[in-house]
Amino acid sequence: MKTITLNNGVVMPMLGYGVFQVTPEECERCVSDAIEVGYRSIDTAQAYYNEEGVGAAISHCGVSRQELFITTKVWISNAGEERAARSIDESLRKLRTDYIDLLLIHQPFGDYYGTWRAMEQAYKDGKVRAIGLSNFYDARFVDLAESMEVKPAVVQLETHVYSQQKRMRELVAPYGTRLMAWGPLAQGMNGFFTDPVLRGIGEKHGKTNAQVALKFLTDEGIIVIPKSTHRERMASNLDIDDFTLTDDEREAIRRLDTGKPLAADFNDPEMARFLLNYDKQFNPANKAR
Q1: Quick check: 41 and 71 in contact, CB under 8 A?
Q2: Average pLDDT, the chain
Q3: Per-residue pLDDT reduced to its tens digit, 58-103
């Protein structure tokens, strides 16, 4: 499996398994399946409410903790230095691990400077091996990267063949920050699974649209975390190392780029309001009250 070296020397798999929208009830089974078919990188978050399922799976999987790479993210409701510090310890408990490989600030809202300070301390204390950001664009990324002692190792953004994040890749490169794609299969939008360009390339190599897209992104140096609850699709998404895209094929895929996201605009005030109230609406603990 291809790996990438982050700006602090930590080595991370290029292809991992994401558990966004995997229910807490099925998360343990899905992560167990993913590890069994060969994934070693798992991406979760406090706001996915399934860290405990990830923790159960990695504790029972039979693969040593040192071989696994676990990412989680601090949510807005835990923003601020003290709250974030407590939430990091809670994530460690739920994940049943002594350390987190990569810890991200999930959204660019709330007291994310306080959150970053807590993450820097966790990094220095050995609770976290690398820290980074998610959904931080443009000036917000630069402001934090320029202002804080530890530079972000990763920025996780909506990235797929229709939104290739070329400008953001250029912006973060001077900090040694690597791009990590959420939604690398475009969440099925824009006719992704029937896209004629991807299909035509895939037919030449005996590969699916998803495999062609994941191959393209990882060849571009982008970390990907496709999600599926189906074991056979997990295995298929992982099976991208036995073919090579030609220069013409890569150029055809580059032409699919629209230069803008499809799923979420983090400069939209309504998106900010939705995310700031997300925990109240979706946290299972709140619904149980």
Answers
A1: yes
A2: 95
A3: 999 999 999 999 999 999 999 999 999 999 999 999 999 999 999 9
The whole-angstrom separation of Cα 162 and Cα 143 is 27
Cβ atoms 43, 225 nearer than 8 A:
yes
Instruction: State how many domains the chain has.
Output: 1
**Token pair in block for residue 77:** 């409701």
Tell me the three state secondary structure of residue 180.
strand
Is residue 200, in this structure, part of any structural domain at all? no
Q: Could you list the active site residues?
A: 48
What is the number of alpha carbons within 13 Å of residue 220 lying toward its C-beta? 25
Residue 3 pairs in a beta bridge with: 13
Query: Would the pTM count as exceeding 0.85?
Result: yes
> On the CB side of 70, how many CA atoms lie within 13 Å of its CA?
29
HSE-CB for 96 with a 13 A CA cutoff: 15
pLDDT at 281: 80
Split at pLDDT 50, 70, 90, the class of 134 is very high
Does residue 275 surpass a pLDDT of 60? yes
Instruction: Kindly state whether residue 204 falls inside one of the protein's structural domains.
Output: no
Does 289 have pLDDT greater than 60?
A: no
User: Residue 4 is inside which H or E element, if any?
Assistant: strand 3-5
Q: How far is CA 241 from CA 153, 198, 214, in A?
A: 25, 17, 10
Does any domain span residue 207?
no
- Classify residue 224: in a domain, yes or no: yes
Element containing residue 49 per DSSP (H, E): none
Domain coverage including residue 174: 3-190+218-238+245-284
Q: What is the CATH number of the domain that holds 143?
A: 3.20.20.100
Strands 3-5 vs 11-13: parallel, antiparallel or unpaired: antiparallel
Amino acid identity of residue 187, one-letter, is: Q
Q: How far is CA 152 from CA 66, 120, 136, 229, in A?
A: 22, 10, 11, 30
